[in-house]
Design a protein that fits this description.
Blueprint (H helix, E strand, L loop, with lengths): L5 H55 L8 H8 L7 E6 L4 E5 L9 E10 L2 E10 L1 H48 L18 H50 L4 H32 L4 E8 H18 L3 E5 L6 E4 L1 H17 L6 E8 L3 E8 L31 H11 L3 E7 L3 E9 L7 E4 L1
Parallel strand pairs: 6-8
Antiparallel strand pairs: 1-2, 1-4, 3-4, 5-7, 5-12, 8-9, 9-11, 10-11
Amino acid sequence: MRRNSIRFRLTLWYAAVLTAGLGLFGTLIWVSLRHRMMAEVDQDLAGRASRFEKYFRSESSGSRPNGVRDELEEFCQALPPGSSMDLRGASGFAFRFVSSTPERPSEVRALRRQFTSNGEVFNLEVSASIAEAIHTLDLLRILLWSLLPVVIAIACAGGAWLSGRALKPVQNISDAALTISIENLSERLPVPATGDELARLAQVLNTMFSRLESAVKTLSQFVADASHELRTPLAVIRTTADLALRRTRTPESYRQSLEDVSAEAERMTRLVEDLLVLARSDAAVLEMPLSPLDLRDVLSDVCSEAYSLAELRHIRLNAFMGDEPAIVSGNRPALHRLFLALVDNALKYSRAGGEVILKLERTDSRIAVLVKDFGTGIPDTDLPHIFKRFYRADRARSGEGHGLGLALAGSIAHAHGASIEVESSEDAWSVFRVIFAARDHKPELTSRI
């Protein structure tokens, strides 16, 4: 096992915890047994003292204590080896008996008590050898210290084997993950049929690979669509230039060719600028300073710019902004671009002679900008996709634009903490509503998107 592997660390921690646990367990057993054995010795000594006191009282009743020495010595003959009796009276009486000494020196445990007989106070000391108890405790200690390393070694080997089996699915997941690359993102990791944390990890990783696959497909489609959109104006520019150079033309013909080239170059410039904004938005490096502003000023500028386009298409553009300020924290050029994209989209899909409404709606907690047209509407199947880049409904494919306006609007709204709601009735009307949180005047802020 590698020293930095999870298996090694699990085994090491398991060994440490097991050692501490077994050490504590063995210590508790030894202490408990010693306490129990000493308590039994003390209980035996108390019984001897009581019997000796009772016998002494009965034998010395009516006579002097010195006359009972022989009886006391006979009583003490039954004491086990290593035991002793020591009785001393206040009048000078003394009796001591020591049984045969054990084979090896040992510790003794003593009990002292005082009693009165025939009006005289006596001090009694009873002792007994605890050699057997000490021997038993020593054997237990040696046994514990001898078996502890063996048990720990066996447990560590078992722990290493068990941790290896437990982590085998992790190794399988790692091996499978190494085989997945951008060429085979559709592959997925095997999910253990255990229902545990490892199965959950495999499911989460598979979900991540699914999102990554979707992102790569979106990126590939984005590049393909951008290339397609750029190819058309490039083809027009090249064809126009080739035709102009093929033979001598009048100044007016050259001028028309240059105007066509300029128009296509302007279209390419707008497309590239939109692509750069979206790319920076995805990379979260687009600086967008925010400051308190009145949406009425932004919408007035948008209306001024869109009126000429509305007149060209014979569409009425009506704005209802009210007299009260509509203060939000925003970036004026970015918001101008957002609302111009929505108004341009409404004009593009409105019928000639129709109407586009631009309206400010206020509440205490939010400010909404509504853009409504009475044109072709949006089919239900297209509603979930209209904010995707280069997406255009089938009926609009032949129209102008390159399908980035609503994508830019959604990105700018997200950068401002706003949301865009869409409602539509096919062949009747469409409503885009941009909702901001209402704010008081605050110092300048900066947002990164």
